[in-house]
Structures are given as C-alpha cells and as structure tokens.
Amino acid sequence: MSGTSLDGVDGVLADFAQPSLASLASAYRPFAPELRAELMALQRSGADELHRASLAGRALAGCYADVVTDLLREAQIPASSVRAIGCHGQTVRHRPELGYTLQINQPALLAERTGITVVADFRARDVAAGGQGAPLVPAFHAALFGDASEHRVVVNIGGIANVSDLPPGGAVRGWDTGPGNVLLDAWCERQTGARFDAAGAWASRGQVIPALLARLLSDTYFALPPPKSTGRDHFHLDWLTFFLAGGERAQDVQATLLALTATSVADAIRLHCPGAQRVLLCGGGACNAALVQLVRHALAPRVVAGVETMGIAASQVEALAFAWLAKQTLDGKPGNLPAVTGARGARVLGAIYPA
Ligand SMILES: Nc1ncnc2c1ncn2[C@@H]1O[C@H](COP(=O)(O)OP(=O)(O)O)[C@@H](O)[C@H]1O
Ligand SMILES: [Mg+2]
Question: For a FRET experiment, which of 204, 242, 271, 290 has its CA 20 to 30 Å from that of 49?
Fold first, then answer.
C-alpha cells in the first residue's frame, strides 16, 4: 500500500487461513526523494506526463517488489507459497465525478519481478459502476473490527482521513472526512523542511486561529452528505493559501490545520455515527500524539483508542485491507460496499496479473 501521504510503501504478509487473521511479516520502505518528488509533481498536470507517469510507475513497481522481498526474507518463505500480492498503486488523480480515478502502477512488472500473482487497479470497477471508488477499506474494517454488541467506528488518518461506521448488526457505512495528514505535511515541509511534524510537536507550540479554522471548515466538502471521497485534487497547499490572510505565524497555521483534521473527523462521527461507543484510530496520523489528544477531547466520553488495543499495528491496517481485497478478487467475491461508495451494486474488484 502506498497512500496519499506519499511517504512510502507499507507491506504485510497476511495469512487468512488462521482462525483469526495473522500478519506473518511487515515491512516499510520510504520513497527515495527523487521518486517522491516526481509522484508529488504528477499530482498536477504537467509536461510530458504520460511518459513521466510510465517511468514513475516502473520505479514504483520496483519499490513494491523490494518490499515483497523484505517480507519474504523476514518470514523466511519462498515466493511460491504466496497466493497473491494486492497492490493499490499510487493515486495521481481522483475524479469519480468525471468517471475516473487513476492509480499509477506497473502490476505486470511487479508480477515479473516477484513471480507472484498480482491483483491491482481495485478502484476502477467501482467507479465504472457509478461509485466513488473509495473508500474500499470499510468492508475489511467491518470484518476485522466489527462487534456484535459494541458500536465501533474506525478512523484511518492517512493523507486523507476516512471513517468506517460499524454499528452492531447494522449496515456498514464509510466515507472520506477530508484532510488527514496531507495539509499538515505540506505546510510543515514548506515552513520547516521536515517531511512531517513528529508527534505534532511543532503544531503544539502554536495557537489555533479560530477565524482561519472557520474559513477552512466552510469548504463545501465538509458539509456534503456521504457517500463522498476526496484526495490531493481537492486538498493541497494552494487550497490552504487561498484561505490565508497573510501574516499568520507559521506554527499557528500548523495548529489550525491540526484542529481542522481533528474537528472534521470528530464532527463527522458526532453527526453521522451518534451511537458510536468506541473509536479506533489507525494510519500514520494515529502516531501524532497531539492530533490523537484533540480527537479524544472532541469525542469524549466515547472511548478513543489505537487499533493496537485490538492487536493490530496502526501502520498495517491499510496494507492488510488490500491483501484482503486481493483475496476477495481471487475468490470471486465483491470488495466494495455499495452503501459506502454509492456504486450501483457489489462488484468483484481489480485486475489479475497471473504469476
Ligand atoms: N510520529 C509521527 N508523528 C506525526 N505524524 C506522523 C508520525 N508518523 C507518521 N505520521 C504521519 O503519517 C503519514 C503517513 O501515514 P500513512 O498512514 O502511511 O498515510 P497514507 O496512507 O496516506 O500514505 C505521514 O506522512 C505523517 O504525516
Ligand atoms: Mg503511507
């Protein structure tokens, strides 16, 4: 899995044959700075982008293959005992309203490099069926974290934040609430050179600017009812600068962006999941102590806890989800939830590149 944060690649080796899902190995490789810069540049239209996207897809497949090699080495198993790789690719455009979402990838090269069957391009079929193509993780969140008596909500704070609402015995819903880390990372990097604000320490030295927070929250995306999904197409540095008056202190803007992520997540849960009892956090944003504290405060008295409390590492949930989605595909089972994405029906997702 490589998500909108453009930080790197998370991999897990999952065993679904166990009575409860077992993660046999995990690996992470950050993107090399040149590849990251190119993936960032490809988020916007630019010169010769078909050629550049093809080369970036090739480099990406190389990263994915390296992560697979790490996993096999850690677990000490041969490629021949792995049924498939579920590979999301790197989103460079997400425009379901125009009928497409685009993840660059070279699954054929990944199959060639690893000798393992690859399942890729999961989102396209849902969009073809009239859906948002996102989020695709709620079905997996439900399978992993759903409970017969407790109303749970899973919040994945990646570049974009998404929630999965899991009422006991009820219908699963899910949607993107808006920015997770994407603006926090972009502002931090521009102002300090650091790729992200570790533990939210820099934001904690600033003061929230209430008028700016109110302007940011006035963006119509936040009030849109689900199903909805978003990406870097909508939330980027120029989006932020449009709302700045100029002259704000940089750390105050960071504090305000932290409040924006926390408020938009908490508001979504209060409004759309009023019965929620336990909120489970995952994704890199769950490592941001200041962000977690704000979310916890905004959602009290509900329990807010990391998914570690359920025995799963926060950084592994999305990668596990795409392993699960690949298994669904190979088993001929649907991966999307029409109530989540707005698709006309359940669909078997993805394209299979046999070993
Ligand atoms: N210790 C930390 N403190 C603050 N933020 C963190 C920390 N670790 C990870 N992050 C955030 O998590 C992001 C990566 O999260 P991830 O779940 O991989 O998102 P995505 O799926 O969009 O790639 C980083 O870009 C960073 O913003
Ligand atoms: Mg990531």
Answer: 242
DSSP for residue 42: T
Q: Say whether pLDDT at 329 is over 80.
A: yes
Q: What is the pLDDT of residues 174-197, one digit of tens each?
A: 999 999 999 999 999 999 999 999
pLDDT for 317 equals: 96
Tokens representing residue 124 in the block: 């396209």
Does ligand 1 lie within 6 Å of residue 188's CB atom? no
- The full set of domains in the chain, from first to last, is 8-132+337-353 (3.30.420.40), 138-314 (3.30.420.40)
| Residue 242 to residues 40, 91, 196, 237, 245, Cα–Cα distance (Å) | 20, 24, 22, 9, 8
Question: In a mutational test of the pocket of ligand 1, which residue from 287, 315, 320 has the highest number of ligand atoms less than 8 Å from its CB?
Answer: 287
> Per-residue b/e over 160-187, b at no fewer than 16 CB within 10 Å?
bbbbbbbbeeeebbbbbbbbbbbbbbbb
Structure tokens at 177: 């609430």
